[in-house]
């Protein structure tokens, strides 16, 4: 399991702020409120980066690889994984795996042997337009409309469950 976790989110609604600056990927300071958390990576560190196929995830993987830090990137699709593998090159100390961040088994497997986690998966599913049309037509004819269907967009991931609820 991870000993340290650094949460980086691109959403402004979370109001995360950068409270320190670093010159290497071996030091990171990210905080939601005071005091700042200092996370130093040692020679035995292994970092899991979720959302590794996204814009920020790619940058983090690249920076960690440049610093020679053992890293594992978690991708939603094989296509995204192959794209990043090509970008990083064969010499990078990066293990690239495909998995679903909403699956406890996938996350547990991805975290195996990791000492740190950088969570960069943050997206919402998009509704499938055809399922919406089906629901509206059924509603019009007073039939049981069922539920809309959703799909995950490339480089996206599920939102966290509401407080007090477990993922389905």
UniProtKB/TrEMBL annotation:
Listed Gene3D superfamilies: NAD(P)-binding Rossmann-like Domain
Chain residue ranges for the region called Disordered: 146-168
Residues annotated as signal peptide: none
GO MF annotation list: oxidoreductase activity
One Gene Ontology cellular component annotation held by this UniProt entry: chloroplast
Coiled coil: none
Domain NAD(P)-binding stretches: 51-130
Biased composition (Pro residues): 157-168
Name of the protein described by the UniProt record: NAD(P)-binding domain-containing protein
Native species: Chloropicon primus
């Amino acid at each position: 399991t991870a000993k340290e976790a650094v949460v980086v989110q691109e959403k402004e609604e979370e109001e995360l702020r950068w409270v320190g600056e670093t010159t290497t990927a071996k030091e990171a300071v990210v905080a939601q409120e005071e005091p700042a958390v200092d996370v130093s990576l040692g020679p035995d560190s292994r970092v899991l980066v979720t959302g590794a196929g996204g814009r920020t995830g790619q940058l983090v993987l690249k920076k960690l690889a440049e610093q020679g830090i053992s890293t594992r990137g978690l991708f939603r699709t094989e296509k995204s994984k192959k794209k990043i593998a090509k970008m990083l090159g064969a010499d990078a100390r990066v293990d690239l795996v495909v998995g679903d961040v909403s699956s406890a088994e996938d996350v547990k497997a991805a975290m195996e042997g990791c000492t740190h986690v950088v969570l960069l998966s943050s997206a919402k599913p998009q509704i499938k337009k055809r399922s919406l049309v089906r629901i509206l037509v059924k509603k019009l004819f007073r039939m049981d409309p069922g539920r809309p269907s959703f799909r995950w967009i490339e480089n996206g991931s599920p939102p966290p469950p509401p407080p007090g609820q477990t993922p389905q």
